[in-house]
Design goal:
The complex is a heterodimer of chains A (114) and B (115). By secondary structure, chain A is an all-beta fold. Chain A has no helices and 12 strands. In chain B, the strands form 2 sheets. In chain B, strands 2, 4, 5, 6, 9, 10 and 11 form a 7-stranded mixed sheet that branches. A 4-stranded antiparallel sheet of chain B has the order 1-3-8-7, with no helix packed on it. The interface between A and B is medium-sized, with 24 and 26 residues.
């Protein structure tokens, strides 16, 4: 079965510093990976996805993610954090064995301190 | 353009009552998904529609839960005999089709509280 792990419940970063939110996955075939962000009292917003091709994927709001097949990871990154980036971040993988459902990580709370 | 909308935004009900939650997807999106999200957890898949039919309802926890999408657009999630454990945020998402590569667009959710 496919699965996603986000090993950190919370990540704290000072404004202006680079940030990384970790995600590892387990799939039986080619991984299709997604990152979403959830602001308080708002729905999930799509940030970026990896389907194939370049291992470095660029997305919304200056975020990018690096796909690493050997480490089965898809870490979310941003070179310079903003206070407004503070939110809940979810990694998800497409479940090729179960009608293409999205399998979600538990989420990582990102706190950017001024 | 308009995004996915969900009504009501909040619903408080008593144990044993019946509730309906509505989802209005992005116009033209044929795929529609319902999820349930509890505090501190990722979304939990409930059901997926392709057009009018439920293509995958394997995530519905029991037969108290049912969903319809009669005209292939608006969907209603129905919960009978609500229990306190049903309290959660119910999320709806849509995508242009069921394509593997398509991201899903989410509504703001309905927060259901069962007293």
């Amino acid at each position: 079965a496919q699965s996603v792990a986000q090993p950190e419940d919370q990540v704290n970063v000072a404004e202006g510093n680079p940030l990384t939110v970790k995600c590892t996955y387990s799939v039986s075939g080619n991984p299709y990976l997604f990152w979403y962000v959830q602001y308080p009292n708002r729905g999930l917003q799509f940030l970026l996805k990896y389907i194939t091709g370049d291992n470095l994927v660029k997305g919304s709001y200056g975020f990018e993610a690096e796909f690493n097949k050997s480490q089965t990871s898809f870490h979310l990154k941003k070179p310079s954090a903003l206070v407004s980036d503070s939110a809940l971040y979810f990694c998800a993988v497409r479940d090729m064995d179960s009608n293409y459902q999205l399998i979600w990580g538990a989420g990582t709370k990102l706190i950017i301190k001024p | 353009g308009a995004g996915v909308s969900q009504t009501p935004s909040n619903k408080v009900t008593e144990k044993g009552k019946y509730v309906e939650l509505r989802c209005d997807p992005i116009s033209g999106h044929t795929a529609l998904y319902w999820y349930r999200q509890s505090l501190g957890q990722g979304p939990e898949f409930l059901i997926y529609f392709q057009g009018t039919g439920a293509a995958d309802d394997s995530g519905l926890p029991n037969d108290r839960f049912f969903a319809v999408r009669p005209e292939g657009s608006v969907s209603t999630l129905k919960i009978q005999r609500t229990e306190r454990g049903d309290s959660a945020v119910y999320l709806c998402a849509s995508s242009p089709d069921r394509g593997t590569y398509n991201e899903q667009f989410f509504g703001p959710g309905t927060r259901l509280t069962v007293l």
